[in-house]
Amino acid sequence: MEAVGPVKAVTLANYWSPIGTADEVGEQPKKFRLLDEDIVVFRDREGVVALKDLCIHRGTSLALGTIDNGVLRCAYHGWEYDRTGACVRIPALPEGSPIPRKARAINYHAAE
């Protein structure tokens, strides 16, 4: 028997999965759990946003934070993340300082 080629692993993480109803997703962050992963979900002007529920700074749950002007502010040190997961503000940095590219939350595709 000959090998046909490499076998690709198929995981459920590569497919769409429901996490809740539209009524459960609001303008403030809410935690959901999917495939043993905590996800924070909220609604902005563009639609539903889903990020890994983890602030890259100190590991705090982003679901404890608040949404202000379309960005998610971590409750611990105030780091702010946009809908793509990019950190757009670190309060401890002087105004105009560059934000490290690694300072970001993992974002997920979300649809309603």
Mass-distribution shape:
globular
Q: Give helix % range.
A: under 10%
Overall mean pLDDT stands at: 87
- Biggest sheet layout: 4 strands, antiparallel
Q: Count the strands?
A: 8
* Count of alpha and pi helical runs: 0
Uncertain runs: none
Strand sequence of the main sheet, in spatial order? 1-2-3-8
Write the element-wise H/E pattern from the N-terminal end onward.
EEEEEEEE
Query: Whole-Å distance between the termini?
Result: 46 Å
Class derived from helix and strand content: mainly beta
Strand content: 25-35%
Radius of gyration: 17 Å
Can you offer a commentary on this structure?
The protein has 112 residues and is an all-beta fold. It is built from no helices and eight strands. It has a four-stranded antiparallel beta sheet, with no helix packed on it. It is globular, with a radius of gyration of 17 Å. The relative contact order is 0.17. The model has no long low-confidence stretch (mean pLDDT 87).
Short overview:
This protein has no helices and 8 strands.
Features:
112 residues; mainly beta
Outline the fold blueprint.
Elements lengths: L29 E5 L2 E8 L2 E6 L13 E3 L2 E3 L6 E2 L5 E3 L17 E2 L4
Antiparallel strand pairs: 1-2, 2-3, 3-8, 4-5, 5-6, 6-7
